Amino acid sequence: MKLYLEFEPCEECKNIIKVLNNQLVQIQTREEESAKFLRHITYNHSELVQAIVKDLPVQKLREEFRWFQ
Ligand SMILES: [Zn+2]
Prior knowledge:
Elements lengths: L10 H11 L5 H18 L1 H10 L2 H7 L5
Zinc ion binds next to helix 1 and helix 2.
């Protein structure tokens, strides 16, 4: 699943995105950073989560993201 999000990233977002965009980063690290990014968005950019939830069935979110309650 791919999400295209338009928002104003904060410093922490930018740091995580930088790691995710780094081709030299190992897959495991990339997965950890992805999870970190999603958690960060959940807690710090709730307006984004609301936008995502509005566009996606909640059931689908629960399947894709275990942290999503
Ligand atoms: Zn952020």
